[in-house]
Amino acid sequence: MFDTSHPRAGPQPSPWVGMVYFAGVALILTGGFQAIEGLLLLPRDDLTQATADALSIPMDLAVWGWIQLAFGAISVAAGIGVLYGQFWARIVAIVIGTLSALANLAMLPAYPFWSSVVIALDMLCIYAITAHGREIGT
After folding, report:
1. Cβ distance 37 to 67 under 8 Å?
2. Which residues form the DUF7144 domain (predicted)?
3. Using one digit for the tens of pLDDT, what is the confidence trace for 54-102?
4. Which of 11, 33, 12, 30 lies closest to 22, judged by CA?
5. Short-list 122, 98, 104, 116, CA closest to 57
6. What are residue 16's phi and psi, to 5 degrees?
7. What is the pLDDT of residues 12-28, one digit of tens each?
């Protein structure tokens, strides 16, 4: 059924390759979550659990909605690029993952559970991509 007579040339990828694929999918998911959060804040900023004054960095929640929407779109694009093994996508994914974690840290008072989940996923993605991201392209 499978031809095992010709072993694959070059070094075999580590089992962490699956984690890098997970990171790509997680970037797409967290980007989608952030885009949804941003879209929800644009028309109705009263959906949060805290007011803009209670945030770590006080700002208009509609502005925050646009920021979350932009982070989400970039995360989705970087996640797709990571799945295809693109070097630029790994760099963008690390940068956007870091910015996303910091942004969600600022949003903790407004979305405590949601922000915590996104921060945890961002950290997992950053680790997998930095430690084993180059194994996808090989």
Report:
1. no
2. 19-134
3. 555 556 677 778 888 998 899 899 999 999 989 999 999 999 889 888 8
4. 30
5. 104
6. -70, -10
7. 777 778 888 988 898 89
Instruction: Name residue, tokens 């499978």.
Output: 2
Phi-psi region of 11 (alpha: psi -120 to 50; beta: other; left: phi over 0): beta
Q: What residue has token string 């963008």? A: 92
Reported as a pLDDT band with limits 50, 70 and 90, residue 9 is: low
Non-local CB neighbours of 109 within 8 Å, separated by 6+ positions: 49, 50, 54, 55, 56
Q: What angle separates helix 61-83 from helix 87-106, to the nearest 10 degrees?
A: 150
- Residue 102: how many other CB atoms lie within 10 Å: 12
